[in-house]
Amino acid sequence: MTEMRPVTEAAPQTAPVKTLALPDAQTVTFVKHWTDRLFSFRVSRPASMRFRSGEFVMIGLMGDPDPKTGKQKPLLRAYSIASPSWDEELEFYSIKVQDGPLTSKLQHIQPGDEIILRPKPVGTLVHDALLPGKRIWFFATGTGFAPFASLLREPQTYEDYDEVIITHTCRQVGELTYGAELIESLKTDEMLNELIGEGFWKKIKYYPTTTREESPKMGRITDLMRSGEAFADLGVPQINPDNDRAMVCGNLAFNLEIKEMLEGYGLVEGANSNPQHYVVEKAFLD
Ligand code: A2P
Asked: What start-end ranges are recorded for coiled-coil regions in this protein (predicted)?
C-alpha cells in the first residue's frame, strides 16, 4: 500500500506522481479470521526490533485523506504482540469493529499488504515486573488473550514457574478457538519442546469459560473464583502472595474487578521498576 501525494494546483503538470512508502511499513504475511468479530495476522518484524514477551506496540494504517487538505495521517492503536520475543515475525490478535476507525479497515488486510508498526515496544505484562513465585496466573477476557499467546510461547515462563494457569472468559464458544488451538499446538511444537524441555506444556492448566453461550464451563472467572469453583476445578489452593503471581488483560470492568480480588488475596501490584505479585494491562479496543 502506498500513499499518493496529492497533486496541488501549484504543481507543474509534468511533475511525476510521487508515491510515499508508509512510515515504519511492515508486510502482512498471514491473516486468519476466527469469527465474524475476531481475526489474527502476522507481519514482518523490523530487523532491529527487540521486545519482551507480553509487551505491546502501536500499529495501524493511513487514515482517510482530510477532505480539505487531502493529507493522510496514520491511524494507530496499541496492540499486544501475540508472538513470543524469539519469533521471526510479529503476530497480532484483533477484534473487528464494523464502525471502528481502525479495525473496520484493518480487518480487510491481505498477505502482501503493508501496515504501519512503530517499533517501540512497552508494557507491564512482563516477567521483570513480578517477584519469583511457584505459580503464574494469566487472566484474559476476549482479545486480552493476545499477550498470553506470547508469554505461553516464552521459555522464561516455564523457567520461572512450576505451574502456568491461563483463564480465558469470552461471551461465545467460537471466541475461545484462537487460544484453545494455540495451547493445543504447544504439545506438538518440536522446537519449543526441544528449547524449553520435552513436555513443558504439561505445566499449563487451561481454564476457558463462556458467559453467553453453552460450554463445558459457564460463568465469569471472577464469579467462579469467588465461589471457589475455579480453584476446586483446577485443584489448586486459593491464590496467596507466597506462591501465586498474576498477569491480567481484559476489558476495563474485568481488570478492575480482578485487581480488587487479587488485592483481597493479599497480592500487591508490581511494575517494571518495582516487581511485586501481579500486573494489569488493558485489552485495547477500537
Ligand atoms: P459477560 O458476558 O457476563 O459480560 P466483552 O466482550 O464485553 O469484552 O466481554 C468479554 C468477556 O468478559 C465476557 O464473557 C464478559 O462476560 C466478561 N466480563 C465482562 N466484564 C467482566 C467482569 N467485570 N468480570 C468478569 N468478567 C467480565
From this structure: none
Q: Residue 283's pLDDT band (boundaries 50, 70, 90)?
A: low
Rg (the chain; Cα; Å): 21
> Residue 117's closest CA among 75, 57, 62?
57
Asked if the model's pLDDT at residue 17 lies above 70, the reply is no
* pTM given for the model: 0.91
How does pLDDT run across 221-260, given as a tens digit for each residue?
999 999 999 999 999 999 999 999 999 999 999 999 999 9
Dist. CA 170 → ligand 1 center (Å): 7
Alpha helices in the chain (DSSP H): 103-106, 146-151, 155-160, 177-186, 190-196, 221-226, 229-234, 252-264
Q: How much is the pLDDT for 282?
A: 77
Which residue's alpha carbon is at the smallest distance from atom 27 of ligand 1?
Answer: 254
State how far the alpha carbon of 190 is from the alpha carbons of 37, 61, 158, 267, in Å.
31, 35, 16, 36
Give, as one character, the DSSP assignment of residue 88: S
Closest protein CA for atom 11 of ligand 1: 170
Q: Which atom of ligand 1 is nearest to the CA of 285?
A: 8
Tens digit of pLDDT for each residue in 118-151?
999 999 999 999 999 999 999 999 999 999 999 9
SS3 117: strand
Q: Cα(154)–Cα(168) distance, rounded to whole angstroms?
A: 18
| Rounded-to-integer distance, Cα 215 and Cα 17, Å | 56
User: Which atom of ligand 1 lies closest to the CA of 142?
Assistant: 10
